[in-house]
């Protein structure tokens, strides 16, 4: 009888452990100016009041390094236009570059995580920036 209780208890513990949801670990990376691989270990997204859009953040410590705004949150392609889709890259707390050309593709938004790709440039001929091969995977909702 005691052995049967032990086996049943072991099964119940395993069942509980299998249902534990691990926190999402997001990936956020891109290639800057065709040669510099950038990646940010801290990232998250949030929804705007009234659920009218999302902000996706890549962070260096506590400072925003890259911010993507989209006025939607469903999978699809969103062209950068400054109003319904914008991307800002922060060179420092005082200096940012805004995307002029590019797009963001949301490939998945489920289980409070967001995944997709992005590419953009700031349109400057001299000292301009271009991001290619941008990817964000399993970025958690905050």
Plain-language structure description:
The model is unreliable at 1-24 (pLDDT under 50). The chain has one helix at residues 2-18; strands at 27-32, 36-40, 42-47, 54-60, 63-70, 76-79, 85-90, 96-98, 101-110, 113-121, 130-140. A hairpin with a 3-residue loop joins strand 1 and strand 2. It has a six-stranded antiparallel beta sheet with strand order 2-1-11-10-9-6, with no helix packed on it. The chain has one domain: Porin, CATH 2.40.160. It has 142 residues and is mainly beta. Helix content is 12%, strand content 53%.
Number of domains: 1
Strand content range = over 45%
Low-confidence stretches: 1-24
What is the CA-CA span between the terminal residues?
48 Å
Q: If helices are DSSP runs of H or I spanning 4 or more residues, what is the number of helices?
A: 1
CATH topology (fold) name: Porin
Walk me through the topology.
Blueprint: H1 2-18, E1 27-32, E2 36-40, E3 42-47, E4 54-60, E5 63-70, E6 76-79, E7 85-90, E8 96-98, E9 101-110, E10 113-121, E11 130-140
Antiparallel strand pairs: 1-2, 1-11, 3-4, 4-5, 5-7, 6-9, 7-8, 9-10, 10-11
């Amino acid at each position: 009888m005691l052995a049967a209780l032990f086996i049943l208890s072991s099964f119940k513990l395993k069942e509980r452990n299998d249902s534990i949801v691990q926190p999402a670990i997001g990936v956020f990376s891109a290639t800057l100016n065709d040669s510099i691989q950038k990646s940010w270990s801290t990232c998250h997204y949030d929804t705007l009041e009234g659920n009218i859009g999302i902000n996706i953040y890549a962070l260096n410590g506590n400072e925003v390094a890259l911010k993507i705004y989209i006025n939607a949150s469903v999978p699809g392609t969103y062209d950068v236009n400054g109003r319904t889709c914008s991307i800002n890259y922060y060179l420092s707390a005082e200096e940012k570059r805004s995307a002029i050309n590019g797009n963001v593709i949301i490939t998945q938004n489920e289980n409070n995580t967001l995944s997709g790709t992005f590419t953009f440039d700031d349109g400057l001929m001299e000292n301009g920036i271009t991001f290619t091969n941008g990817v964000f995977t399993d970025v958690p909702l905050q």
